[in-house]
Amino acid sequence: MSVYFPHKKLPYLLVLPQLVITLIFFLWPAEQAFEQAFYQEDAFGLSREFVGFDNFVYLFNDPQYYKSIWVTLVFSFSVAFSGLAIALWLAVMADRVIRGKLTYQTLLVWPYAVAPALAGVLWWLLFDPSMGPVALWLQYFGVDWNHFLNGDQAMTLVVISATWKQISYNFLFFLAGLQAVPRSLIEAASIDGASPFKRFWTIVFPLLSPTTFFLLVINLVYAFFDTFGVIDATTQGGPGVSTATMVYKVFNDGFIGLDMGSSAAQSVVLMFLVGVMTVIQFRYIERKVEY
Amino acid sequence: MIENRPWLTFISHFSLLLGIGVVALPVWVALVASTHPSSAFGAGEIPLWFGDQALENWRSVFLGEASSGVDVPVWYMMLNSFIMALGITVGKLFISLLSAYAIVFFRFPFRGACFWVIFITLMLPVEVRIVPTYEVVANLDMLNSYSGLILPLIASATATFLFRQCFMTMPGELIEAARIDGAGPIRFFFDILLPMSRTNIAALFVIMFIYGWNQYLWPVIITTDDAYYTLVMSIKRMLAVDQGDIEWNHVMVTTLLAMIPPVAVVIGMQKLFVKGLVDAEK
Q1: What structural domains and CATH numbers belong to chain A?
Q2: Measured between CB atoms, which of A25, A116, A130 is closest to B152?
Q3: What does each C-alpha distance from B175 to A222, B111, B131 come to in angstroms?
Q4: Cα distance between residue A214 and residue A224, in whole Å
Q5: Distances (CA, A) of A150 to A155, B78, B188
Q6: Residue B183: band (very low, low, confident or very high) from pLDDT cuts 50, 70, 90
Q7: Transmembrane segments in this chain: where (chain B) (predicted)?
Q8: For A142, what's the count of Cα atoms within 13 Å in the CB-facing half-sphere?
Q9: Which end of chain B has fewer CB atoms < 10 Å from its terminal CB, N or C?
């Protein structure tokens, strides 16, 4: 655009509200996190001393922190892959269907609106070791289900809850991607005798790869940051630390453990991670604009 | 449809129905659980068909007569949730419409700096900077207040980014025409820009409302006074008893009540919702 309004003061007035909110509730806390990451504070917050990079050194020598990184990776990739796979399958099926497509869509997208914490509680009821129908059914088949004692089972439960909520989102994007695949390509391939299966893997899936990559990033970001509620409402990071992700640990060390220095250092590490993910996403957006 | 393959069509419908069933399963069980007396849950088995306590359970939980570990009734927390969700939605729309308007339609010194200060917040959720944000809000004396619940969650650039992209696609002739007709920037904003962005605003409204309603960690941290509890976070308090003492029927009524408003928004405004979702991530 090349035409602008020639005003001197008005634009400042217009950006002012957002700038003020951003400065107070974003930049100030971020600055505090950076500052605090270099200090050691006593448990009552009465005094603190400058310790340089000690908090970071301590953090990266702490086996617990590596454990939380590992938990985060297992959790995030499990959520992303199972969510993408199930959603892609359902979207391909919905794309084939002629009658009732919108009804199917409606009945599949509503979990998006459910808060992560509530999703966790709903699945907890199903898997409750003493009375949950799925847990009892598993016990009938000899699986000793108790996610309060077994770390792997606790992880499975939070992965299921988090995936359940995210399927709807992936489904909508895959469906939109599938509808953008040119019909003529599919028709040409089927005239050449390619089976539906072959058509999917050699034509449709490669054409969907931008959507898939975009969704992978979004799903990882979701699993990293938005699933706090799932974990806090169901397992609270337990048993032990087997479901304590990095974001959960920031909260836990800061508010329960009252170790402000370490929590702030972890915040800084996470901010760095988010920055990297944002850059990846922006790169992707620029690439998408090209074609 | 390229060719007719009845077998594949059958598999399609079957998969979709199975998917819908699995997705709906937890809500079904929750609905059933909400219709039984609390005594039905301790026995090592959960009832799989509806009981006769539905009205009783829903009424007592809604009015706060059932013991729940929270001092205020559910309808009151629902009101809080509405205030928070609407506050976040309206606040975000307000500040981001104005700043996107300034950034796209004006040229002024430090425009680039303003742009970056705002866009640095993109994607960095409150969960990451939770402890220092808490301290800032505590310093400002906003713990246990609606402004404390709302304002820190408004500080995000997603909406600004969307409006910026939407405004940039508008033709420059529009401003020229408006200026020739004697319209100033304020007139232009209200008479041309707002009506033209109507669908975008509505779509974003849907997404933001769901985002605001579903906030969990932030309300958990800054509210210690029951009067400011929101519905979604109150679940944590209701579950904070010994494992055997959880009153599942009441917990499930609360869970379902907390789900109903956002789910109704998604289903009722599906077109806008899908548009908002797809646009917001572009």
Answers
A1: 63-290 (1.10.3720.10)
A2: A25
A3: 40, 20, 45
A4: 16
A5: 9, 35, 62
A6: confident
A7: 7-31, 82-106, 113-134, 146-167, 248-267
A8: 0
A9: N
Q: What is the pLDDT of residue B123?
A: 60
User: Tokens 């969307």 map to which residue?
Assistant: B162
Query: DSSP letters of B165-226?
Result: HHHHTS-THHHHHHHHTT--HHHHIIIIIHHHTHHHHHHHHHHHHHHHHT--HHHHHH--SG
Cβ atoms B256, B54 nearer than 8 A = no
> Are the beta carbons of B45 and A131 closer than 8 angstroms?
yes
Residues pairing with A39 in the sheet: A50
What count of other Cβ atoms lies within 10 Å of the Cβ of residue A282? 12
Closest by Cα among A100, A104, A153 to A124: A153
- Non-local (6+) Cβ contacts of A287 within 8 A are A210
Distance CA B242, CA B246 (A): 7
Radius of gyration of chain A (CA): 24
Residue A290's pLDDT is: 36
Helix, strand, coil percent values for chain A (each to nearest 5): 75, 0, 20
| CA B142, B152, A166, A276 torsion-angle sign | negative
Please state the ipTM of this predicted complex: 0.86
User: What type of residue is B248?
Assistant: W
Residues of A in contact with B188 (CB under 8 A): 5
Domain ranges in chain B are 72-280
DSSP secondary structure string for all residues of B122-155 = TT--TTTTHHHHHHHHHHTT-TTSHHHHHHHHH-
Question: Quick check: B200 pLDDT over 70?
Answer: yes
Rounded to whole angstroms, how far apart are CA atoms B238 and B68? Answer: 6
Q: B72-280 has which fold? A: MetI-like fold (1.10.3720)
Taking the Cβ of residue A169 and every Cβ of chain B, the question of whether any pair is shorter than 8 Å is answered with yes
Query: What is the tens place of the pLDDT at every residue in A194-219?
Result: 888 888 888 888 888 888 888 888 89
pLDDT at A106: 87
Q: Which of residues 210-269 of A touch B (CB under 8 A)?
A: 214, 218, 221, 225-226, 228-229, 232-233, 247, 250-251, 254-255, 260, 263-264, 267
